[in-house]
TrEMBL record:
Gene Ontology MF terms: deaminase activity; hydrolase activity, acting on carbon-nitrogen (but not peptide) bonds, in cyclic amidines; metal ion binding
CDD domains found in the cross-reference section: ATZ_TRZ_like
InterPro entries registered for this protein in UniProt: Amidohydro-rel, Metal-dep_hydrolase_composite, Metal_Hydrolase, MTA/SAH_deaminase
Domain of life: Bacteria
Stretches assigned to the Amidohydrolase-related domain: 60-425
Pfam families (UniProt xref): Amidohydro_1 (PF01979)
Organism: Methylobacterium phyllostachyos
PANTHER family, alphabetized: AMIDOHYDROLASE-RELATED DOMAIN-CONTAINING PROTEIN, AMINOHYDROLASE SSNA-RELATED
Protein name (Swiss-Prot/TrEMBL): 8-oxoguanine deaminase
Family according to the record: Belongs to the metallo-dependent hydrolases superfamily. ATZ/TRZ family.
Length: 455
């Protein structure tokens, strides 16, 4: 017996938005299956009948935001007394003393909280850099993939690593590190299990040694070789603080960008977190190689690390994206808030006329997509995935605002009303679909206090 034909994907018209960050779509867009299939001009109708219409007349529609750097486990140690009011290295050393207490249950809840917060802020692709694998957390990548699939958010999980403990000249205690062979073996395992290189992928894997001072040269080089074999991307922290530059000079007798080239990482499959303390020659080298940089403005201000040279990097040819960074150096997993901070910090650096709200929104969408090597997300464009964030301007903070897109950023939007991922609503009326937020907060908070409250 012949099989019945697959039903045609339903067509949804997101109609007449208050504003939309797309050209020629003033009348809205049509979504079919997981993709955007049509822009509708002002006053026009879709070219073919639709099955469903969503009235977006109260909504400002932007591409789903893309987070390119985070540490989900850190939601458990926000605003912790042992770490607040410290710069990066003292902050890390303080928290390393307690992070080894994280249990599998706590890690799962920490990831769920981070992903949910990101989704509520209008983020549709959640990048996470997980480098903490104490005993009991060996399957952390599996947990993060599982949580992303349950929530319906796209995930770019990087298999991080630390192999140099404080005994070998690194920063972390030995209990938080793994040997190179264990790291490389598990990296290959998770690539085989989860990495999907196809357009529209819901889960992708990258390899991400934590930083040059946390792993061996062998691990950096062999991670690059493994990434080349599997066609995945590479990620690490670099140029975050002057202390880090000094550490690299002392440990490797070269500056961080020189070290990056030495270990085979100076290419367009790499994106870096922070990238603050690069000189002019290094900016040019990174741009020429197409190395991406994730700007983390909130974390950089919290730790007083410095200001990313966003405009120079972008002009040189480096993709620039945005990230919230860990919730112990940001104390929030809100990417829309990060968009506003990116505008403010960049204006302080370059001047009020040099960086607009549109620049920061572009960094958080199209720029972040480029950092992740994806051309199927990041813009509201026919043929791209239907990843969308819809915000209302009903709060008092927006009263009197005249430019809806500018108001999102300048008036401080921080919570989306609707979020669509791959053509499916994942946030409706400001609530994540299928998540009991109250219960999640209670469970997460309980474990955070039990594990870290007495530190």
């Amino acid at each position: 017996m012949a099989q019945a034909a697959e039903p045609a994907p339903r067509r949804l018209w997101i109609r007449n938005p208050l504003a939309i960050l797309a050209v020629g779509a003033e009348g809205g867009i049509v979504v079919e299956g997981t993709r955007i299939v049509e822009h509708v001009a002002a006053g026009a109708q879709p070219s073919r009948p639709v099955d469903e219409t969503f009235d977006a007349s109260r909504h400002v529609v932007i591409p789903g935001l893309i987070n390119t750097h985070h540490h989900a486990f850190q939601t458990l140690t926000r605003a912790h007394p042992i770490a607040i009011n410290k710069p990066l290295f003292p902050w890390l050393k303080a928290l390393y003393t307690i992070w080894g207490r994280i249990t599998p249950e706590a890690f799962r809840l920490a990831t769920r909280v981070a992903y949910t917060e990101l989704l509520l802020s209008g983020c549709t692709t959640a990048g996470d850099h997980h480098y903490l694998f104490p005993k009991g957390l060996e399957d952390s990548v599996d947990v993060q993939v599982d949580e992303a699939r349950a929530l319906g958010i796209r995930a770019f999980v990087t298999r991080g690593s630390m192999s140099l403990s404080d005994r070998e000249g690194g920063l972390p205690p030995q209990a938080l590190t793994q040997d190179d062979d264990t790291i490389l073996s598990d990296s290959e395992r998770v690539l085989n299990l989860f990495h999907d290189p196809a357009p529209g992928a819901m889960v992708q894997i990258g390899l991400a040694p934590c930083s040059p001072f946390a792993v061996t040269k062998r691990l950096m080089r062999e991670s690059a070789d493994l990434a080349a074999r599997y066609g995945c991307r590479l990620h690490t922290h670099l140029g975050e603080t002057l202390d880090e530059d000094d550490y690299c000079q002392s440990m490797f007798q070269c500056r961080p960008v020189e070290y990056l080239e030495e270990v085979g990482w100076l290419n367009d499959q790499v994106w870096l977190a922070h990238g603050i303390h690069f000189n002019d020659a290094e900016v040019a080298r990174l741009g020429k190689a197409g190395v991406g940089v994730c700007h983390c403005p909130t974390s950089n201000m919290t730790l007083a690390s410095g200001r990313c040279r966003t405009c120079e990097l972008e002009a040189a040819g480096s993709p620039v994206g945005l990230g919230v960074d860990g919730s112990a150096s940001n104390d929030s997993s809100n990417l829309m808030e990060g968009v506003r901070h990116a505008v403010m910090l960049s204006r302080l650096t370059y001047g009020a006329e040099a960086v607009t709200h549109l620049d920061a929104l572009r960094w958080a969408s199209e720029g972040s997509a480029a950092c992740l090597g994806r051309s199927d997300i990041g813009r509201i464009e026919v043929g791209r995935e239907a990843d969308l964030a819809l915000f209302t301007l009903d709060e008092l903070r927006f009263s009197g605002a005249h430019d809806p897109l500018a108001a999102l950023v300048l008036c401080g939007a921080h919570r989306a009303d609707r979020v669509m991922v791959a053509g499916r609503w994942r946030v409706i009326d400001g609530q994540p679909v299928g998540v009991d937020v109250g219960r999640l907060r209670e469970d997460h908070s309980r474990l955070a206090v039990a594990l870290f409250g007495g530190a």
